[in-house]
Amino acid sequence: MSLCGCVPPGPAAPAVKQPPQATAPPLPAAPAPQQPATPPPPPPPTPEQQRAAVLIDQVEAAYAAGDAAYRKGQLAEAKTQFDRAVDLMLSSGLDIKADPKLEDEFDKIVDQVNALEMEALKQGNGFVPKEEITPAEAASDVTFAVDPNLVAKAKAELSTTKSDLPLMMNDYVAGFINFFAYTLKGHNTLLHSFERSGRYKAMIQRILAEEGVPQDLIYLAVAESGFQPQAVNRRSRAGGMWQFMPHGDYGLVRNAYVDERFDPEKSTRAYARYMKFLYDQLGDWYLAMAAYDHGAGNMQRAVERTGYADFWELYNRHELPRETQNYVPEILAAIIIANHPEQYGFDDVTLDPPVLTDTVTINYSISLRLVSDLVGAPVDEIEALNPSLLRMVTPPDPPFDLHLPAGTATLFEQRAALIPEEKRNSWRYHLVAEGDSLASVAQEYSVTAASLATANQLHPGDSLASIQALVVPVPPAAEPLARTRLYTARRGDTLVTIADRFGVSLGQLRRWNNIPSGTRVEPGRRLHVAEPLPPRSSSRRRRTSATGVRHTGASAPGSRPATTKSGTPASAQRHPSGSKTPSKTANGATHKPSSSTKSATP
Prior knowledge:
By secondary structure, the chain is mainly α. It is built from 21 helices and seven strands.
């Protein structure tokens, strides 16, 4: 029995009759094809975006140059370019974190540089070039074997050697010749010294001739510094190419702004005069050379004690410390090799090109960053040309010989004339780039747009379309910045050893690098290190060996002032400060000269 059978059946529903259809119902009409909407044109880039794009191009170019130098093994040049790439971003005045493209670029560059530096660390010392020891340091612990054939050969060559010193050959000199000529360590250190000498050789020879000192005494720099003008003995603090001690004065200025021990030309003048003084005291050039290392008083007492005014007699009688005993024969060996380079395997010497500069004697204080702006050279190049400066500004007490890249003195004077003398220690000089505005330039230098407009005799709303450059009224710092350097930590370094190395406190090193505590530092990390400023002193110069007294003595691209497209300064009628321009500039205004220019080799 079916369950549904319990429902009684009802009447059947009538069937619904459908009308006949001959065809299927028509499909709805297809909509007409629509053309894709044309997207609206992107808005033009803002001035900040334009500056960011230009900055990224500059950063990429600097990184590419660094990478190319790295691939060639030129680590010092690679480091310079990599640092420039990073510094371009850090000093741009743009908010990197607020712009995703800039932040990505910064992170990418830093990561790439760190990766390459770690790769370089695995092979040795990272981008920091190994400190170049002097030939004297290289030979300090060497026992020299005497080769009779070498002695005979050298003695024969002395007969044809032209020198204004009385050269001689003995076993002591021959031992150093053997070390420099026939050992890899000795050969390389002397080779590098010879190469560096090319930067200063003409200048040194000129000064030695003017002071009446034998020309071959140029090679005393081999023993002292290997011709490195900023060499510093970390133990004695002697410094410069001729290694004058920090205390004392021999015609070399040393104060909170300047240390002329590091000025190649002025320190060479002091060296030549001191050597002449020693010769006049002792009557013999060998004794004078020994006295430069051991001190004139010590040498005079050795002569009085023995009755022999002869260096070799004092040597054989053990009247001299070991360093001084080696000092004279080492220099003689360098002189003999320099006079016969091919005979001793130095036919591959290629002298570095001479350092040529324009020198402007100024009677005002000026920031090195402004100098960089004015002549269009990186600020580190300006620093390198003025190694005697301890701060990023020239001293306030005139005069000062400012060294500039060769051929830029006229440009420097023309552009500097647009800035009041009393403002040159802080104001800047900015080339106007596409997209710049008074507001954007003011933001870059952390000044107000109103003050920037006033300094350039413009109105705050004026366009910079016809302006080539601006002077920027940056207020002076409370204290002029000391020159600093970046140091890349090596394996085994700690904050304590680095602080000790540079003569600074652990607290200073932590503060400069935002390190709250601890002493560990990972290899490859770059640390800011500020060299401590020397105390003022003006005592007499004196020098001895380490066992006695040592001798004493003393990145911004270039830009132009606010100018029109035709080259006429925007401040042609008045000085940017509002006063009359006291100098002759590109606009033809006249002034009373305040500086002199000469060509020089520092």
